[in-house]
Amino acid sequence: MDLVASGLGWATCSTEHAADDPMISAVGLGKRFRSLTAVHDLSFDVGDGEIFGILGPNGAGKTTSVRMLSGLIAPSEGTARINGMELGAQSQAIRAITGILTESPGLHDKLTARHNLGYYGRLYGLRGANLRRAVDRYLGVVGMSDAADRRVGGFSKGMRQKIAIARALIHEPEVLYLDEPTSALDPSAAKTIRDFVSTLRDAGRSIVVCTHNLDEAERLCDRIGIMRGTLLEVDTPARLRRRNGTASVRVELVGARQPASFLDLLGDLPFVEGARVVDGTLFVEVTDPRGDNPELVRALVEAGARIVAVREEAVTLEQVYLDMVGEVGERDARPIGEVA
Amino acid sequence: MRPGFIWAVIVKEARDLLSNRLLLGAVVFPALIFAAIPTGIVAFIEVNELDPAQLGQIEQYLSQFPDLSPKLAAQGFIVLNFMAYFLLIPAMVPMAIATQSVIGEKTARSLEPQLATPMEVSELLIGKAIASATPAVLATWGVFLLYGFINGAIADPALTSLIFSDVWRVAMLSLVPLICLLSVLLGIIVSSRVTDARTAQQIGGFIVIPVIGVAVAGFFSGQASFTMQQVMVGNLVVALLIGVALVMGNWIFDREAILTRLG
Fold first, then answer.
1. What percent of chain B has pLDDT over 90?
2. How many domains does chain A have?
C-alpha cells in the first residue's frame, strides 16, 4: 500500500457547495417500504475532510440511509444535498462523485481483479490510459497487484474486500460511503485501510463509515451518530462518552492514612458527584475530568494525601452505544457508589 | 442512453460468458444438433436410392418442388422443413444466458455496486440484453450459413438456393433477432421472481412451446417452409410481445425494486 506512505496525490476536492455549507447535508430524510418505516427524520451534516461514523444495530437503517444519500433509492420524505446537488433531481451527478463500499463485496467472480476494476472505472467515466493507470494504482493501493490477473472467484474474503475497496476509490470520489470497511481483513490490512481512509480525510474527502466495530469508530471517526431508525445522538467520540454520565477518576494513595478518611473532604467539593473506596483505591465521580482533576488532586494533597497515580476510568463508547440502543451490556467502568 | 455505458456492460458480460464453458457450449451445441439431423438425412438420401413405391406417400410434399427431381425434392423438403427449428435457438439460448446473468448478479450481490455508478438501469438492462442475444443470433446465423453450404455440397447447389431463399433471409435478419430479444426480456423478468438459474430456465422454457408448435404444425400441414406473409406476421406478433415485455420489465426493474428485492 505504497500510496499511504507516499501521499495520496488525489486532486483537490472539486467543491460545488458554498464554503460554509457542508458536503453532505440531510434534513428530515425518511424511507418507508410499504408499512415498514426503515428510517425517519434523519438530519445530519458531514463537512469537507470529515469522517462521520454511523453506529447502530442490525436493521437500524444504516444501509437504507447510505442508499438514499448515495442516490440509489429515493427518500420517502425529507431532502439532502451532496456537494451542493439536490438528491433526486441530481442523483446521477451525485452517484458520479460518490464511492461506495457495499456491505457485501459484490464482485464479478468470473472476471479477474483487473477486469472487475476496469469495468467499474468505465462506468465512472474513465477511459484509455487514465483507466489503465487508475486500475494499476488502486490494485497497488490495496496490495493486490500480484493477484491482478486472477479471477476474483478464487479470492479469500479479505482479498475480495480489498478489491471492493479499490473499486470504491477508482474514480477518486469526493464522497465515500464505507460499510464495514475492515470486516474480513487481518489486523495489518485493517490498519492500512484505516490509515488510508485517514489520508483521504486529509485530502478533503467526506467519508461516512457504517460499522459495528466500536473501537474502529472511535479511532477513525471525527464524529459519530448512533442510529436506530433515526440518529439518536451525534457528537465526537469523546463528548459522546462524557455526555452520558460522569467519569470515574481512580486515585491510588500510599502512606499511613486510609483512603476512606478522605471521603468527607471529597463530599464537600462542589464538582464531586460521588466517591467511594474499593480495595484500598479511591474512586471519585466527576463530570469533567479534564477540568476537575487538577482541583481534585490539589485538595487531596493539601489534606495530606500521598498520591501515586490518578487515572480516568472513562465510560466506553460501547457502553454509551449499548445504553442508547436499549441493550444491556457489560460496563468497562466500575460501578459507581453513592456519595459518601 | 449513453453507448459507453452499454458497451462497458456488453464487454463485461462477454468476458463472463467466455469464461463459462458450460454456457458457451449451450450456445453452440443446440444449433449444431438442429442442423446436423436434417443434414444427416440429406446425406442418407444422397447415398441411397429412393424407393419408388414410397414416392406416392410423399408426393404431396414433393409437388411443392416441381422443378426438382424426386430425390432432390425429398432432400429439399427435409432441409426446409427442419429450418423452423432454427427459431428454437434464439428462443432457448438467450434465455439461458440472461437468466444466468441476472441470477448470477443476485447471488453475488453485484447489482448494487453497479447501480451506485452513474449508469442508468435501462443502460444496464440494454447492455445485458444485447450481450445475451448476440451470441444466439451469431450462432444461428453461423449455423444457417454452414447448413446452406454443406447441404448444397452434399446434394446439389439447388439446396443452397432453397435454404438461402428470400423468406429465410428475411426471417434470419428480422425474426431471429426479435425472438432473441423477446427471450432475453422474458429471461430477465422470470429471473426477477426466482432465486436460482435452474428454476428460471425451467419456467422460461415455456417460451419454446409456441415455437415448437409452429414447427410441428408446419411439418404436419405438409408445408415445406414459411411464406413471406407468415414471417411478417411472426415479426409483428413477436414485436408486440416485446412491447408487453418491455412494459413489464420497466415496471419490475426500477432501481429501488432491484435493490430491495433483488440486490
1. 22
2. 2
Nearest Cβ partner for A123 among B15, B20, B119: B119
* Domain match, A299 and A220 both: no
Q: Could you tell me the CATH number of the domain that includes residue A317?
A: 3.30.70.100
Closest by CA position to A109, among listed B100, B258, B185: B100
Q: Of A215, A236, A257, which residue constitutes the final position of a domain?
A: A236
ipTM, interface predicted TM-score of the complex: 0.81
Q: Which residues pair with A177 in a beta bridge?
A: A100, A208
Chain B residue with minimum CA distance to A151: B19
Asked whether residue A337 is assigned to any structural domain, the reply reads no
Mean pLDDT within A113-133: 94
Q: How far apart are CA B13 and CA B98, in angstroms?
A: 10
Cα separation, A322 vs A314, whole angstroms? 15
Mutate to test the interface with B, among A66, A103, A116, A122 (most CBs of B within 10 A): A122
Q: In total, how many domains does chain B have? A: 1
Q: What pLDDT is recorded for position A88?
A: 86
Nine-digit cell at A203? 485530502
Q: Is residue A277 part of a domain?
A: yes
Give me the residues paired with residue A299 across strands: none
Q: Is residue A272 part of a domain?
A: yes
pLDDT tens for B98-117 read: 887 788 888 888 989 999 99
DSSP assignment of A262-284, as one string?
A: GHHHHHHSTTEEEEEEETTEEEE
Q: Is A80 helix (H, G, I), strand (E, B) or coil?
A: strand
C-alpha cell belonging to residue B56 = 406416392
* Domain range for A202: 2-236
B129's CB contacts (< 8 A; 6+ apart) are B98, B181, B184, B185, B188
- Distance, in Å, from the CA atom of B94 to the CA atom of B184, rounded to the nearest integer, reads 5
Average pLDDT over residues B228-240: 89
Backbone angles phi, psi at A157, to 5 degrees: -60, -40
Burial of A301 (0-12, 13-18, 19+ CB in 10 A): exposed
Last-in-domain residue among A217, A236, A255? A236
Statement to judge: residues A204 and A121 lie in one domain: yes
Give the range of the structural domain holding residue B178, as residue numbers without chain letter: 3-262
Q: Domain check: are A232 and A245 in the same one?
A: no
Predicted TM-score of the model (pTM)? 0.79
A193 and A88 assigned to the same domain? yes
User: With contacts defined as CB-CB under 8 Å, which chain B residues touch A110?
Assistant: 15-16, 19-20
A119 inside 8 A of chain B by CB: yes
